[in-house]
Specification:
Blueprint (H helix, E strand, L loop, with lengths): L3 H13 L2 H8 L3 H15 L4 E4 L2 E4 L1 H25 L7 E7 L1 H18 L3 E7 L5 H6 L5 E7 L10 E15 L12 E4 L5 H12 L5 E5 L3 H9 L5 E4 L11 E16 L6 H15 L4 H4 L1
Parallel strand pairs: 3-4, 3-5, 7-8
Antiparallel strand pairs: 1-2, 5-10, 6-9, 6-10
Helix pairs in contact: 1-3, 1-4, 2-3, 5-9
Length: 296
C-alpha cells in the first residue's frame, strides 16, 4: 500500500524540482524528504528517482505516479469534506492566508462574521505574500488563501488547488502630479521587496511603456509606499485596495493595468463546511468594500 504522506512529497517534488525546495516548503529536512521518497520507491517496487550528482529527476513511472497522487489527494479531501457535512456545528481550526491590505480591509470584517456565526471555530490568520500562498495550501499550513496575478505578471499554473474569482482592481500611478506613466522614466521609484508580485508588476508595467524604473525604496505596505510618495521620495504603482486613504500631495492616475485576486484552496476542499463558511464570509466582506472609482 502506498503511503499518502509520501505521495504528497512526490507530488511536491514534481512541482518544485528539487528535494531542497520540497523540504523548505513542507518544513522537513532534505534528508527526511530523501528517506521518505526512498521508502516510497520500495512501496512502489519501481525506481522513482534518477540521481545525477546532488540532483534528482523523476522517472517516467514517478511522473505517472505524481499525476495519480493529484487525484488521490483530491479524492481524500473530498471524502473528508463530505463527512464533515454531517456535523451540526462547525468546529476545528480554520487557517486563512492573506496579504496585508486584504487583512485590514476584507479579512478583518470576515473574521468578525465567522466568530459570530461559528463560535466553535478557531481562526488562525497568516499574513503572507500571495506568491507564497499556493505552497502553504499544499503543505496544509493554510486552508484557504488569497492569490493574485497582475497584467504583465500572469499566475503560473498550480497543481492540487482550486480557485475562484474574488476581486479585480485598478492599478494607479501615485505621484506628486497627475502625469502619464511614460513621463516618469527619469523619476525615482518605490516598489515592493524584490521577489514579490508587486515588485515584478512595477518593473514590467514600466518596461511595457519603454523604460526600466530606477527603484530607490522598497516597501510592501502600501500605506508606507504612499507616505514615501507624499514625502517626495519617488513615485509608485498602487492597487485600488491600497489606495483608499490617500495622503495630501499625492495624485492618482488610473492605469489600464489590473490586479486580480482569487480565493484558493486545496482541490476537493471547496465544499468542506469550514472552507465553505470562509468563502461565504470573505465574499460578503468583499462586497461591502468602498470603491475609489465610485468616489471619483
Amino acid at each position: 500500500m502506498l503511503d499518502v504522506r509520501r505521495l504528497r512529497l512526490l507530488r511536491e517534488l514534481a512541482q518544485r524540482g528539487t528535494i531542497a525546495a520540497v523540504a523548505q516548503a513542507l518544513a522537513y529536512t532534505p534528508s527526511a524528504v530523501s528517506q521518505q521518497l526512498a521508502a516510497l520507491e520500495k512501496e512502489a517496487g519501481v525506481p522513482l528517482l534518477e540521481r545525477t550528482g546532488r540532483s534528482v529527476r523523476l522517472t517516467p513511472a514517478a511522473v505517472r505516479l505524481a499525476d495519480h497522487a493529484e487525484t488521490i489527494l483530491a479524492v481524500l479531501e473530498q471524502a473528508s469534506a463530505e463527512l464533515a457535512t454531517g456535523r451540526t456545528e462547525l468546529t476545528g481550526t480554520l487557517r486563512i492566508g492573506a496579504f496585508a491590505t486584504a487583512v485590514r480591509t476584507i479579512l478583518s470584517p470576515a473574521l468578525v462574521a465567522l466568530s459570530r456565526d461559528h463560535p466553535g471555530l478557531e481562526l488562525l490568520v497568516s499574513e503572507l505574500d500571495p506568491v507564497n500562498a499556493p505552497a502553504a495550501l499544499r503543505a496544509e499550513s493554510l486552508d484557504i488563501a488569497l492569490v493574485q496575478e497582475y497584467d504583465y505578471v500572469p499566475a503560473a499554473p498550480e497543481t492540487g488547488l482550486d480557485t475562484e474569482p474574488f476581486l479585480e482592481e485598478t492599478i494607479y500611478l501615485a505621484a506628486p502630479t497627475p502625469e502619464p506613466l511614460a513621463e516618469h522614466r527619469d523619476s525615482l521609484w518605490i516598489a515592493g521587496m524584490p521577489g514579490t508580485l508587486c515588485h515584478l508588476m512595477t518593473v514590467r508595467a514600466c518596461e511595457a511603456v519603454g523604460f526600466t524604473p530606477r527603484i530607490r525604496h522598497h516597501a510592501d505596505d502600501f500605506g508606507t509606499v504612499l507616505a514615501l510618495v507624499a514625502a517626495g521620495q519617488g513615485v509608485a504603482l498602487v492597487p485600488e485596495l491600497g489606495a483608499l486613504n490617500i495622503p495630501g500631495g499625492v495624485a492618482l492616475v488610473p492605469l489600464s493595468t489590473r490586479r486580480r485576486t482569487r480565493l484558493a484552496y486545496r482541490r476537493g476542499t471547496g465544499s468542506h463546511p469550514v472552507v465553505a463558511a470562509a468563502r461565504a464570509a470573505l465574499h460578503a466582506s468583499c462586497a461591502t468594500l468602498p470603491s475609489r472609482q465610485a468616489a471619483e
